[in-house]
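Form 7-S
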Amino acid sequence: MPTQIGYDPDDDMALGEVGKVGVSIPTLADMRVLLMASLDKVSISMTINAPAAILLAMVIAVGKEQGVPASQLRGTIQTTF
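Output:
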């Protein structure tokens, strides 16, 4: 939940919320850990609103680091901009 509302997991406003729903991904380093599988072999789906574009950018960055072009990434995002 902290990721969805834009808080770092160690922010006072996130107290008691980390780990209840989904995963906390406040940094690109956290996304690298989450996406240790080769991105050319998996599909990623995110049901998240406000930070969807930021998280998608992180996925694209990790894919680039893995040598996977953005055109080969698979998955969906759900957002209401």
